[in-house]
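The records we work with from here on pair a chain with its fold. Here is one such record, which you should read through line by line:
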Amino acid sequence: MHLAALSRSMPRPYYCSIRRVRFAIHTMYKYSFLNDYSEGAHPRVLEILAHSNLRQEAGYGEDALSLQATMLLRQATGNPAAAVHLVSGGTQANLIALASMLKPYESVIAAESAHILVHETGAIEATGHKVHVLSARDGKLEAGQVRAVVAQHCDEHMVLPRVVYVSQATETGTIYSKAELTALSTTCRELRLYLYVDGARIGPALASRASDITLPELSALVDMLYIGGTKNGALLGEAIVINDPSLQDRFRFHLKQRGALLAKGRLLGAQFAALFEGGLYFELASHANAMAAGLADGLRAHGVSFLSEPVTNQVFPILPDTQIDALRAHYAFHVWSRVDAYRSAIRLVTSWATQREAVDEFLQDFARTASDHHAPAMDGPVIGV
């Protein structure tokens, strides 16, 4: 095969394009659709931080702001007995949460696109735990797959599956329905497994027009989850919520050992108090979703197909490679995966701070470049469309 043709046929996953974009983001782009954490924080978060700045508080998450955040998160999840712990980031949350649930010989079940598998530098494996990797349609695990993994690990010569890891929303922007999560929860309880939810984008997932489950309903189905702040209006921070009483005991020891028990825990508490007082958290998620829907509707009007049906704040349009190159001269985004020899799926992410003007300008530039860049018809149907 000719070298150029071979290059076109090779996949270009988005994590291989991060470095190229990282160094140029501050220079020439009209707007960045790279992620939902490029901005700082919602003004209400900054207001509470500033207002409480000179007030002396207790350390290590025992301050008044963290206690208020805990109360609000218990109310939001519908579990007054939940243990709530605030940490700085998603990888830290996943690492500590999963390690706390696993004995040395136990393992985690996850989809092949799972964040813990692809984008956390082997953090889970570094603790000595195996991750069972399953192919997953639209990034979602099914109860039958979980049963099959457990059945295959039958004695002490193998690891023992103990935790099922799912993301809501998934890495491809899809969401689990209430029925899907209920089936997983029922299976996990029958097989004595823990069900854990990575909620980095749980706000957009639950605020989605396609969602049929609430936060209290989701929380009741899982043993532990984390609620993402970094990607939904906070400066930084994630809230680990532990529903299973057997997992609550001495969790702070895990936090301290992993460097997550912050002396100035008040800084995390203030942010979650701001986000969950008065419904701000889901207002911000709804705005991000609305901006993404504007992108998706505008692209669909031009006949664009998508890697998965757009329902949250991540949109994955499939475009000719030549048009992608033209758009990348003005916008930052990730090239997610190759679809065929001439097309790739890109990822466009909107945030709580994305303005309608940025969406409209992107669509105008898309329309301007569309007529100049075509590719042969695709061989088969596109997932999610």
